[in-house]
Specification:
- With about 160 residues, the protein is mainly alpha-helical.
- The protein has a single domain, classed as Ferritin (Up-down Bundle), CATH 1.20.1260.
- Helices cover about 80% and strands about 0% of the residues.
- It has six helices and no strands.
- Helix 1 packs antiparallel against helix 2 and helix 3 packs antiparallel against helix 4.
Length: about 160
């Protein structure tokens, strides 16, 4: 399969799954989240959609680059440590929304996010070793999750 098709496929999958996760939290953003005490640096709600759409697009491109490189090296994709780390971090990413928004477990969401951060870092390291661009594409993601971790911790303290 050509790289462009892998990119399209991976971006669509990442955006679709991320969108499902976001869709499941919309009602809580307008209700529960609205009434929480938040720090002064809390971004406006409208920013989260475009930010996550961009990050999911970068994740999809990054994953496609790894998939393509592994294909060319004749390495089975699901035997790669890089791919396993990516899948774990992606699952943790999607789970966070439910833990925080649906279950309202802010402390547990913070712990889960710290674990997510570690797996993003592991993914970046592994991706960078295989394809430098794939690793670099995930840097905005870990920066955003770092900010979201501080935001979540602040919400925990304020509430």
């Amino acid at each position: 399969m050509k790289l462009i098709f892998k990119v399209i496929f991976c971006v669509v999958i990442c955006l679709f799954l991320g969108g499902l996760s976001g869709y499941a939290t919309v009602s809580e953003i307008k209700n529960w989240y609205l009434h929480l005490n938040k720090p002064t640096f809390n971004p406006p709600n409208w920013l989260f959609g475009p930010a996550w759409s961009t990050l999911y697009t970068f994740m999809g491109i990054s994953f496609a680059l790894i998939w393509d490189r592994l294909d060319k090296a004749k390495i089975k994709i699901f035997t790669s440590k890089a791919v396993i780390f990516f899948i774990i971090q992606f699952f943790l990413n999607l789970a966070w929304s439910s833990i925080f928004f649906s279950l309202h477990l802010v402390a547990f969401a913070l712990i889960e996010m710290l674990i997510l951060w570690v797996f993003i870092l592991l993914t970046i390291i592994q991706f960078y070793r295989i394809n430098k661009i794939a690793g670099i594409l995930l840097v905005p993601y870990i920066l955003w999750v770092s900010f979201a971790t501080v935001l979540t911790a602040s919400i925990l303290v304020l509430n």
